[in-house]
Amino acid sequence: MQRFDPAKDSPANLYKLMIGMVVPRPIAFVSSLDAGGTRNLAPFSFFMACSADPPVVCFVTAHRPGPRPSKDTLTNILATREFVVNIVSEEFAEKMNAASASVPPAVDEFTLSGLTPLPSEIVRPPRVAESHAQMECRLRQTVPISNESGDTNTVIFGDVLCFHVDEAVLLEGGGGYKIDPEKLRAIGRMGGPTYTRTRDRFDMVRPK
After folding, report:
1. Nearest to 25 by CA among 204, 192, 182
2. Which pLDDT tens digit goes with each residue over 28-71?
3. 3-state helix, strand, coil in the chain (%, to 5)
4. How far apart are CA 71 and CA 88, in angstroms?
5. Helix, strand, or coil here: 19?
6. For the chain, how many structural domains are there in total?
7. Looking at the domain assignment, is residue 12 inside a domain?
């Protein structure tokens, strides 16, 4: 078995290892607004649910080289303290990918991708109408993760203020709270440009 030492290897190589090992990763398709009201939409695959009581989700925005080291999503959330996490399904995967392009802050990724903004009920950023499940969130806290050079990735934690679920993806007999994965058809990230579908599943009953 080959051994890799983070203290001696490059961040680029370690990134390849992590995105190849930590799979599949769910995608947070995050919509936000800047202080002037310009819409932003971007996908993040370092994403997870943290707590159900209270309901909290988190995702990570990475530092990037160049004159704008912070992603627009982070800048917007720090300014407004609001965002929406939209779950990505197969039927609009290509449009989600189009929204991942590196463009100036003034570019509206809803327009760029052809996705439809849908007004939220509590927060100001719009939801993605094509998404079957959305979470309106308010910023709880951010946690910086800095390297030796001082470059900082940021973990963003959000309190979920409201859930929206398309009735078409709810599981019959689930009391209105269970989502049918066959109908949601969520996708996940693998390594590099590879994605995965969630169609192949199996059940295991937890031991008592």
Report:
1. 192
2. 999 999 999 999 999 999 999 999 999 999 999 998 776 676 89
3. 20, 35, 45
4. 20
5. helix
6. 1
7. no
